[in-house]
Structures are given as structure tokens and as C-alpha cells.
Design brief:
It is built from 8 helices and 34 strands. The protein is mainly beta and 550 residues long. The chain folds into 2 domains: 293 residues, no CATH class; 241 residues, no CATH class. The strands form 8 sheets. Strands 1, 2, 4, 5, 8, 11, 14, 17, 18 and 19 form a 10-stranded mixed β-sheet that branches. Strands 9-10-7-6-3-15-16 form a 7-stranded antiparallel β-sheet. It is globular. It starts with a helix and ends in an 8-residue tail after the last strand.
Length: 550
Amino acid sequence: MKRNSLTTAVVAGIAGTVGIANLATAVTLNPDGLGQVLIYPYYTVNVAKNQVEDPSNLTTAFSVVNTTNQGKAVKVRFLEGRNSREVRDFNLYLSPYDVWTATVFTLGTDAEPQANLTTTDTSCTVPKIRGAAAGSSSGAIGVLPNGQSYVRFSSALYSGDAIYGASGSPGRTLANTREGHFELIEMGVVGNNAGQNGGAAQNSIAAITHVPATGVPLNCDKVNAAWSSYPAPGYWTADNTVDLGPATGGLFGAASIVDGANGVLLPYSADAVDGFYSAGGFNHSNPGNTSPSLANVGFPAPSATAYVFRNGQVVTATYGTAPGTLPIDAFSALFTHDAIFNEYVLGGGAAATTDWAVTFPTKGFYVDRPYRLGSAGVARAPFVEVYNQGSRVEVQLTPFDREEQGPGACTGSDSQNPACDLCFSPCENPEELIPVLRYETQVISFQSTADFLDDRTSPVLGSALAENVDVRADGLNAGWLRIGLNPATEIHALPASAEGVTFFGLPITGFAATNYVNANAAPGKLSNYSGLWKHKGSRSCAGTATAACS
């Protein structure tokens, strides 16, 4: 079998039982972890609040693996957490069966407060990162004292935007690059073929393939020159389809948030989305171009179809043809849940602390004015408010301890809430009696109100974009939390698809991270350890066209 073989075959069999055709043209969230698009829900280089031995900055290490015998052109994109403006994009070219690794870090100085990316991996990037000269790429490249080069993250796309606050506010500074999420999008298969616009074949696959004797690609300079414009256009500047063919997927990825000084490692796997392009599609762009983005799902077709698993059945939903819909809605449908669930643990002999990373991976396409919606844009469903130092959505918080007990009768953290529902603490004003999430990427911490007011940094991930749940006030120090994403007070629903299907809730991904500092460990023994668990979720939809929504 060709691409996605096992997963496609299995899903096709399921789809056939419910009358779905043309599986290869639909976008799916691949449970096997392979895809054309990888979503990494969180990165951070902040300082965690619970660090006890050495309060140093976290790093985020990550990898992407090409499981196929084909070369791959991949767009790598990092997005800041508040509103998902790009803080660094570049092109990556993977040889067959290749792995590429990199690390996001910060120098943490007044002169360089931003996040940076460095790599010792030899796979080709455009522009060049490994071995690049200081000051190259228009000043983006720096060099560490050991001679290793790095690329600085940039605030260029938001630093002058008033919707991020007044000049000098946290939202407009380079420090805003220090947490967010990132995505990798396959642009196409690299080969040796003439372009669709008349360009001659250049054998780019040979240039990006590692030479066995050296372990280094044959000629990364060649693919960098292919995107040059001076003194003459390179072959990809002249025709970006040269040596490129349809995307086939087969990528997987992982990341780890690392606190090396305190012995903490928080690893996770990236979400994998397959079928991103319509049949035969690819989208190869220069490294200065923000295309392809998630909004290009279904390219080059003007619409996109999503296949969403719900209760053992497949729901089909097409967007871009029905009134009020866009192709991005198909990508959002894959992640839309009406609730997410996960565990937490606090205190005890292991001095446990827990943070939840919560990311809405497509939110910017629904709320970001003027960058994505235009100057007169309004928020698109399922989101309800354009970004202006935040874009609020109401949620519901329902915690339980391990013996199924919830908060008392309007006591503790929720005592001021007339609805007796848990609010994000502190409930400082009437607005905050209703829990809201404000950003594209944020963290939910589990601290006492006093601790949170003293320092709003989250304990495990060091987030500056934290909301807090004070379950300790109700004695719920270990248990689980349900976050409802479709409250009766503010309905969240994607626009109805061409098939009449409506998904309720919000597109969401993320994980819970817990760190332990075991005071009972033997003297001289490392007592820090950690764990990470992906959020679980439920789905809700309506539509007479599919039994799966009944």
C-alpha cells in the first residue's frame, strides 16, 4: 500500500460502512500519530515557580521524524501564546527516513529576553541555522560562546499592534515570544522533476540527502541558493514547483519541556493531522512566506472535508462551500470538543504541583483583527470576541476529588459566585465570577488564591499566561477536573457544514503536567520527578444527515 497504508485502509473500511467516499481527500486527526501536519501544543523557556535547586529557564527540545523513503519540504512555524502571531518561520528539508532535532531556549538577559532556536542537526534549513554567521538572516542569527549559532524569535508581527496593549506592555515585548505553541506543515515531496511553471529539474533530493560516509546532506547550500533573489533568482524563486510533488504525510514528532538543573523532563507527542491537502495537492513557499498555514487546508481546492471520529462512528463535514464557512473550519472540527478532562495532584509528601497547558490551535483565524480578519473583522464562531489584549470565551469548571466529591455548598474559592460554580481564582470582580480563557495558548495552574496573587507564574511550566483554579479551598487536593467548553450562558458552535453538521464546543488540545519533589527520598538521592498526560475530551454534534450526531 502507498501512503498512510494501514490507517487509511482501516478508516476507509469504517467510512465505507457509513457511506463515506473519497477518504483520501479528507482531513483527519490520525490516531496512529503520522501525518502531513504536526501540532505541538506548548513550548516554554520561562522559569518554573516550583524550581527549588536552581531557578533557571526551562528549555523545550523537539524532533520530527520522516518515516518515508521520500524527501520532505516542511514549514516550521512558532506562534506566541497570546494571539498566535508568528514569531519565527523557516523551511526544513528532510531526507528519506530523516530525523531533525532542535531546542528552544532563552539567554534570559535584558539585551536578549526572547526565545531562540538552536540545532546541531545537519538536515537542511532555509535560511541556514546550524553554522550560520552572527548577524546573518537580517540580524536574526546569534552565536553562543561555544560557537553554536541560534536564530532569535521576533516580535515584528505584534510589537506595534495596539490590540496587544500599550507600548511597552508585556504583550508587545520580546518576552511574549517565550511561550506558545508550534506547528510543522509538510509542503510537498522533494524529488527531481520539472516544475509546473516551466522550471527544469534540479535534483534537489540528492542535495538534501545525507551522504553515508559523512552523515551530512550533500549540498544544503544548493537549496538555500534555490530561494535566493540576488544577483539572479534561484530556481525555487523562479518556480517553486521544481522538484516538488504532492504531499504524502508519514511525519511524526515529539517534544520535551526540560528543567535540567532540577531533574525534570516532560515529554509529549505532537498531534498528527493527515489528508491536509486535496488529492495531488502541495504548497511549497519561500521561507519568508507565512503560507502554507492551517487556513490552507484542502489546498488547492476551495473547500475542505473533515472526518471526525465520535462514539465509534465517522462524521463527515465539508466547509468552504456552505454559507458562512471557510476551509479552516474543517481543521478546527478535528479538535473541537464540548469538554476536556484530566487529573491533578497537589501537595502531600511529594510536594506535587500541577499545570494544564490549554491551546486553541486555530483560534487566531477566528479572532485576530486586523492580521487575519481585516480591520473591520468580527469574531467568527465558535469564538465570540475579537482579540484585544485577550479574546475571552466562557468555560465551566467542575472538579472532583478521588472519591467523587466536588466543591462544598458554595464555600471556599467559589463563595462569591451566586451560581455556586467554581470560578478562576481570585474572583476579583464580577466579570471573573464567570471563568474565561483569554489566549490562544495558556496554562491553568492549581494554586491557593494567596499563592497566585503573590506570584501569578504557574508552578510547573512557568507560564505568564496563567489562570488559576483554587481547589485547595475546598479540600480537593487530588482528583480530576472537567472544563466544559459549551456553557449554556455562551454557546460555542462551529458553523454548520455543507452536510448540516454542527460541532459544539471549541477546538482544543494540550496536556496536564505534574512535578513532584519527594521530601522522603534518601539523602543524596535525586527526588524530583514528573509526568505528563494528554487531555481527554468528549464531542457533541447535531445534524440529521448523520446518525453519529444523534
